[in-house]
Structure formats: structure tokens, C-alpha cells
Design brief:
single chain, 6-stranded mixed beta sheet, globular, about 40% helix, 5-stranded mixed beta sheet, about 500 residues, about 15% strand, alpha/beta
Length: about 500
């Protein structure tokens, strides 16, 4: 998760009147590098559609298009008490969700536990021990029982594991690769469900893992629970992703299960890996540096251009280049703080874009306080424009994934539930993304947008609980497609 400052008043427009010619030339060059026009948006989207199709095929493609074994939407009348465990980024979150008898309602209590940085590159056993410990603390605190073994029944658990995983069953998931800066040894290529279950069993916790889900799938299900026009769930945060409901008959790689062709199945796209082959993405030299210096060069090409984890680093790389090679930005000053990789995050750009003052005084203070740099007014104007360019490019490219799913599924009108720190907190991200959708899909001016990206429900908490509830409901109905271990579910 990227931490953003509180939202402030709408930003003012900058003036380039007092910017020297050499800086103006650099700004024009940056505009050339980072602007994505309508023609490029359409080209990217058309290629995206083909890649989505390829991912569903038996041969597969760069985009994994993982079947999730979530077979349909909730009807709003699911009931019960469920645990949700959310592992996806900065924090580990444990929730207890009560689904009452009222349609589409829920109650939630939750606790957050900071994921220690050393855990993200540690070993497998330490990770699962830490997660089990957090779950135990939560249950003991909220259930006020001295002996957990004495609880009447096991609590169904929906585990939100927000990393690319192959799922042959809903209560199983083989980690394909770590993303978001995680690189824990001994987990890739393994089924994470038994690893978690072993840690729970070791502590004799009264918990039954009912479903392993991705936060994006959870976002789709939770959003549809409260708004049945939601047909796509998206995440725009530390990473990027989308999920939508496909027909089993349109997923050749699961044809051997002989499921009814019109049976719905949620697909977790994992489309941060779109265009790893670099056919259409408009990368700059700075995107190339980010990729080359990342733990996994050549992977997650799309994500590295639009996700919150990389926006601040893009900004930083450009400023260092302008200082060293181009126009002597921050000339004569010590830029050692600026040279530290990933020292700036997306909230730095967010703060700059929201500076309401004509003289950019708040941006100046930000550079002084965070980087020990004294920036002139023209330098601040360049930084402001650069932040706008990077933020705008991210929002416009992010719309291509949504547009591609809509084109593939012939969706002409729907709501899209979006979550993540960049979508929720980065200034103008929603408006810029909406404008890009208009350009890609060619909607007439002056009418309400037929496809509307709006704030999602809590996918990794409520969504996980709902999917656990849907799984138990399927077991009771005898619909066991994609469920491995039904013992203790009913």
C-alpha cells in the first residue's frame, strides 16, 4: 500500500511564463516522452484484448488469466460469521465479517498488523508463523476465550493472497511469482494453502480455510454484493489488476472439467504482466531503468508503468537525469538524498499535484524538508509538470485494461468497482482515467459515461468473507467444482 497525505483543495494551474528556455525545452521533451495520445490508447487496448484471449487459451500467454473457482455472484442473502485474512502489501489485516439476514448488508471488525520489512525477503516458515500469530491474537481478543480449542465450531476463513497464483481448487493456490517487492524463499511453485493450514494447526486455532482468493476477485464480488451493475473489479494501488466474470465455455484451458458452458467463473487477470514482450507499451528510457533494476526484469511490464510502487521512482529518475545530464537542475546542490532508489513514493507526486499556491510554496517546502534541496520557481514548475505527466500517463494507461475487458465481453454499460491507494487518493486519477475511456470507446460528448469506474467495496475483507460463504453454499448444494477439501465446511 502507498501512504498518501490527506486530500486537499483542488490544485491550481501552473504558469510557465517565467520558466527559462532551457527548462522549457526539457519540459517539452518530457511531454513528448510521457504523453499517451488517443491513437496509442486504442492500439494498446486492441492488443490487450488479444492478450486476454490468449491467457484463457490452453497454451496461455503473458497475462495468466487465472480461473478462481468463484462460480457466480452472491445474491445478497448470504448469512453467517466469517474470518478474512488479507495479505497483500504493507499490512496484514484480519477481519471478522458478519453477514446478517438483511440483503446486501454486513458488519465488520478488523485489526491491522504491520508486515515487518525483513519478513518480505525472509523464509517461508517465518511468514506463516507470523500470520498464524496475528490470527491467534485477533481471535483471542475479539472472542474473549481462554482456550481456543473450546470454541463450539471452526470459523470459516477467506484468505486474500494478493499475488499471482494458479488455482486448481478454490481452497488451494500455487504461487506463480512474488510481486510488490516480496521475495520470500521456499514459496514460489508451492501451494500456499497447506503452508498456512499447517501453521494454524500447530497453534490449534479454530479456523477452517474455505477459500483462497485474490484481492481483485474479492473486489469484484464485494462490489457486486452491494451494486449488481458492477461487472469488473480493479485494483490500482501498489500493483494493478482486474477480475471479471467469464463463461466456462469461453475458457479453453478448463475445458477438461466438462463444466456447463454458460456457468460463470470469475477470472483473476493478473494483467500487470500485460505486454511483457513490449509490443505496444510506450516505454521511456526511465521505464527501462526501472525494469532493469527491479528484482524481476522483463516481468510485470504494464504494472511498472502505472502502479503506485513505481510512480515516485520514475519521478526521481527523471530529476536525477536532469541534474546530471541535461539542464543542471538543482545546480551546485548536493542531491545525495535524491539518488537513493525508491526514496520517493506516489504520495510525493500527489502532494506536488495538490499544491494550491501559485508560487508552489508547499512543493518548495517538500523538497527542502524531504530532499534538502532549494528549488527555484522555474524548477518547481518543471517538477509540477513532471508529476502531472507521470500521474496522467498512469491513469490513461490504466483505462486500457478496463476498456479491453469491456470490448472482449461486449459490455456496453456497467459499473466498475476500483480500489487501491492510487485510485482512491491520487489527485485527478479517476477523471483522467474516465477521459481515456471516452477516447478509447468513442462515446459521444455531453452524455453520461455508460461505463463508470467508481469506488469499490472492501474486496480483501468483505469480498473474502462472501467468497467463503459462496463456497460453503456450493458444498451444501452439492456443486463441488473446484473445491478440494470439503471436510468441516458444513
Amino acid at each position: 500500500m502507498v501512504d498518501f497525505p490527506p486530500r486537499r483543495k483542488p490544485s491550481r494551474k501552473g504558469s510557465m511564463a517565467d520558466v527559462p528556455k532551457d527548462l522549457l525545452e526539457q519540459i517539452k521533451e518530457l511531454e513528448r516522452l510521457f504523453t499517451v495520445d488517443q491513437a496509442k490508447l486504442i492500439e494498446v487496448t486492441d492488443h490487450f484484448v488479444k492478450e486476454l484471449e490468449k491467457g484463457l487459451s490452453v497454451e496461455g500467454g503473458s497475462i495468466p488469466m487465472n480461473p478462481t473457482w468463484v462460480m457466480g455472484y452472491p445474491d445478497g442473502y448470504e448469512t453467517g460469521t466469517f474470518l478474512a485474512l488479507d495479505m497483500g502489501g504493507t499490512n496484514l489485516r484480519v477481519c471478522e465479517i458478519i453477514l446478517p439476514e438483511e440483503k446486501g448488508e454486513f458488519e465488520i471488525i478488523q485489526s491491522k498488523y504491520r508486515m515487518p520489512e525483513e519478513l518480505k525477503t525472509g523464509d517461508s516458515e517465518e511468514l506463516w508463523e507470523y500470520i498464524a500469530d496475528c490470527l491467534q491474537q485477533f481471535i483471542e481478543y475479539h472472542h474473549e476465550v481462554e482456550d481456543l480449542e473450546q470454541m463450539d465450531s471452526k470459523l470459516p476463513l477467506g484468505f486474500t493472497f494478493s499475488f499471482p497464483a494458479t488455482q486448481d481448487f478454490i481452497d488451494h493456490g500455487v504461487l506463480q511469482r512474488w510481486t510488490k517487492g516480496f521475495d520470500i524463499s521456499g514459496v514460489e511453485g508451492k501451494d500456499v494453502a497447506p503452508l498456512l493450514e499447517a501453521a494454524l494447526q500447530k497453534r490449534k486455532l479454530p479456523v477452517k480455510l474455505s477459500a483462497l482468493i485474490n484481492d481483485t476477485t474479492g473486489t469484484l464480488i464485494a462490489s457486486h454484493y452491494t451494486d449488481d451493475t458492477m461487472q469488473i473489479g480493479c485494483i490500482f494501488g501498489t500493483g494493478c489488476n482486474a477480475a471479471y466474470m467469464e463463461n466456462c465455455g469461453s475458457v479453453p484451458k478448463i475445458a477438461h472439467y466438462n463444466l456447463p458452458p454458460d456457468m460463470p467463473i470469475a477470472i483473476n487477470c493478473e494483467y500487470g504482466a500485460f505486454d511483457n514482450e513490449l509490443v505496444v507499451l510506450p516505454r521511456t528510457p526511465f521505464d527501462v531503468i526501472i525494469d532493469n533494476d527491479s528484482p524481476r526484469p522483463g516481468q510485470q511490464a504494464f504494472e511498472k508503468m502505472i502502479a503506485g510502487l513505481y510512480l515516485g521512482e520514475l519521478f526521481r529518475l527523471v530529476l536525477v537525469d536532469l541534474h546530471d545530464n541535461k539542464c543542471g537542475l538543482f545546480e551546485g546542490q548536493d542531491i545525495s538524498k535524491l539518488r537513493k532508489a525508491y526514496s520517493l513514493d506516489a504520495s510525493f507526486l500527489s502532494f506536488i499535484e495538490e499544491d494550491p499556491f501559485e508560487n508552489l510554496s508547499e512543493t518548495g517546502e517538500l523538497f527542502a524538508n524531504e530532499l534538502s534541496l532549494k528549488a527555484s520557481k522555474p524548477e518547481l514548475e518543471l517538477c509540477r509538470r513532471l508529476a502531472e505527466l507521470i500521474g496522467t500517463r498512469a491513469a490513461r494507461l490504466s483505462a486500457c485494461g478496463v476498456a479491453a475487458i469491456c470490448k472482449k465481453k461486449n459490455i456496453e454499460s456497467c459499473h466498475v468497482g476500483a480500489d487501491g491507494s492510487v485510485f482512491n487518493k491520487y489527485p485527478h486519477f479517476k477523471a483522467r482515467g474516465a477521459q481515456a475511456l471516452r477516447e478509447i470507446l468513442g462515446w459521444p460528448k455531453g452524455k453520461r459515461d455508460p461505463i463508470d469506474i467508481r469506488a469499490a467495496e472492501d474486496g480483501s475483507g468483505v469480498g473474502a468473507a462472501l467468497i467463503a460463504a459462496l463456497t460453503i453454499k456450493r458444498v451444501k448444494a452439492g456443486n463441488l467444482a473446484g473445491i478440494r477439501n470439503t471436510e468441516g465446511m458444513v
